[in-house]
Specification:
Length: 508
């Protein structure tokens, strides 16, 4: 192997090692991961909150054994591929060895270390943005139309993974119009490529149409319950935190795109980041939606710094540029990553609060960061549901009805009884009820708020009813979640559920 290839392979190895070791074994999987893993059992061209690609990856994970190793592997893989693309982008921009090392270090020691822990669409989303920008650079340099078709393919894959990539185009199109690259729009191949992308994403669009566009309902619900609590200033401030060790490189990129003559043909990238961030800020988007923007700017900045810090006294600044992200990584190591136990975070709350890490999507501060609280209590829930089922009659079907998708997914993942099927009226689970067999037993998993009268309300419809258990981990977001058990129904439970499902779907 060449020297450059050896260095790149070392970065890839370090990336995978960090993704596996920077998480405490005290944490379970994340709430969202259980839903995505369950989608492998219900393949479709779309879901309530996400397009289908995540379910395809979940199928591969399931075929490989559904273990935590493979669940962690794919986000880590997409993260590793992201800085491979950054490496290739730097090479395309004629960057030297320093630029390659600096760019890779900045991408490695960034928010991606947090993002690439979780099996969510976000890791592939960032990779899709990065590849699309790389292809655009290749097209600007060569004007070879094959890059247009590759761009449409990457956009389609990104779209079928997460609709967020649409904002890449929203920011890019006006940027193109502001520069001499507006000539793109006079080329026939551009429109053929757009048509190609539309054909590729059409199965999901048809699914959305046939299901009354649940993505619109999801976005409306998101805006009303979560985005309403997003502060626009906090969105911008968190952009600085995400790549804080890379700020000198990103700032250098913005300067170079305006004033560095070799980058004149890439000037549209300067306007693109402004438009994209402006749209995200106006819409009060979650701050991590914009993460995919930055890797390509790290490429530009690393190449520019590599060119101007090459000779004389300036070359002594090179190790400082590389050391900055390493230093910030060391400083933030204890508070950003889930390497620390929940008890450690509890004992050091002031530090976490200082950086806004305890602020949840409801706009309030809590005991743990939201992602960490969403990774606790799930095994306990599944074990206690299994224990409750063991006390019920064996005859007939047992339905486990949960209040939210995290509960249903976690029970389906951890339960030792693989014949059970936990569902919910929440998210995609409303489409996954199995009502073809008579239900004789009901396990009701209820959020603590709203569970006060559950036993009195439901018990009259069954011959046997009891409170089975509850979640006792005080640091879990599911703390005090209640488990109720009912058996021998006096009513037709299946018919009652069908009516309720229709009511919920019509409401949506």
């Amino acid at each position: 192997m060449t020297k450059k290839t050896t260095i790149l392979v070392c970065f890839i190895i370090v990336k995978f090692l960090l993704q596996y070791f920077l998480i405490s074994p005290e944490y379970d999987l994340h709430r969202d991961e259980y839903l995505h893993l369950d989608q492998a059992n219900h393949l479709a061209w779309g879901y309530q909150s996400v397009p289908p690609v995540t379910s395809w990856i979940a199928c591969i994970i399931q075929l490989l054994g559904n273990s935590v190793f493979w669940i962690r592997f794919f986000p880590a893989l997409f993260g590793a591929l992201t800085f491979v693309v950054v490496w290739k982008t730097i090479e395309e921009l004629k960057g030297n060895l320093f630029a390659l090392i600096a760019g890779s270090t900045c991408v490695l020691l960034s928010v991606l270390l947090r993002l690439n822990f979780l099996f969510q669409p976000n890791s592939l989303d960032v990779l899709s943005w990065t590849i699309f920008y790389f292809i655009l650079i290749k097209y600007i340099n060569s004007e070879d139309r094959k890059w247009l078709y590759l761009a449409s393919l990457v956009f389609a894959i990104g779209f079928l993974n997460k609709y967020n990539i649409v904002f890449l185009l929203i920011g890019l199109l006006p940027a193109i119009l502001l520069t001499e690259k507006r000539k793109f729009f006079f080329q026939k191949d551009v429109y053929i490529a757009i048509l190609f992308a539309l054909i590729l994403i059409s199965p999901n669009l048809v699914w959305q149409y046939n299901n009354k566009f649940p993505v619109i309902h999801h976005m409306k619900e998101l805006a009303e319950t979560q985005l309403i609590n997003v502060n626009r200033w906090d969105f911008l401030k968190e952009q600085l935190y995400y790549f804080i060790g890379s700020l000198p490189v990103i700032i250098a990129a913005l300067y170079a795109l305006l004033f560095y003559s070799p980058f004149k043909k890439y000037r549209l990238f300067f306007f693109s980041i402004i438009f994209t961030l402006a749209v995200f800020t106006y819409l009060k988007a979650k701050s991590y939606y914009a993460v995919g923007i930055y890797p390509v700017y790290i490429s530009f900045g690393a190449v520019f710094l590599g060119n101007i810090l090459y000779t004389g006294w300036r070359k002594y600044l090179q190790p400082i540029i590389i050391a900055i992200p390493v230093l910030f990584y060391i400083l933030l190591y204890n508070i950003v990553f889930s390497i620390k136990s929940p008890q450690y975070i509890l004992n050091n709350q002031p530090v976490y609060k200082k950086y806004g890490l305890l602020r949840w999507e409801d706009g309030k501060d809590h005991t743990l960061p939201q992602d960490f609280a969403d990774m606790l209590g799930w095994k306990e829930l599944a074990e206690k549901v299994d224990a409750a089922i063991s006390k019920l009659p064996k005859a007939g079907q047992t339905l486990i009805l949960c209040d939210n998708y995290g509960q249903a997914g976690a029970i389906n993942y951890y339960s030792t009884n693989k014949k059970i099927n936990a569902v919910s009226f929440n998210a995609d689970y409303i489409n996954w009820f199995k009502l073809d067999t008579k239900i004789n037993n009901l396990i009701r998993v209820k959020d603590f708020e709203g569970s006060e009268n559950e036993l009195e309300k439901t018990a009259p419809y069954f011959e046997k009813a009891f409170v089975a258990d509850s979640i006792t981990n005080p640091l879990a977001r599911e703390y005090k979640t209640m488990i109720f058990a009912f058996s021998n129904p006096k009513i037709d439970v299946n018919q009652r559920l069908k009516v309720e499902i229709d009511k919920k779907k019509n409401y949506r």
